[in-house]
């Protein structure tokens, strides 16, 4: 969303700084969720690999 100078005057300059802070916060939350999602995928893959390894060990004995 692009704000024009007219929009800034209409909503007031103090509200604009709140808007910018809010947008920055939303971006940080989105980045954190994306990073967590990637970590969970890696962890899931590691768990599957470990499980296969354990099955091989069990068969060997």
TrEMBL record:
<protein>
    <submittedName>
        <fullName>Uncharacterized protein</fullName>
    </submittedName>
</protein>
<feature type="compositionally biased region" description="Basic residues">
    <location>
        <begin position="49"/>
        <end position="61"/>
    </location>
</feature>
<feature type="region of interest" description="Disordered">
    <location>
        <begin position="34"/>
        <end position="61"/>
    </location>
</feature>
């Amino acid at each position: 969303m692009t704000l024009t100078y007219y929009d800034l005057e209409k909503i007031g300059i103090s509200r604009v700084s709140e808007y910018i802070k809010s947008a920055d916060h939303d971006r940080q939350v989105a980045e954190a969720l994306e990073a967590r999602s990637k970590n969970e995928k890696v962890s899931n893959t590691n768990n599957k690999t470990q499980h296969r390894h354990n099955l091989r060990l069990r068969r060997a004995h």
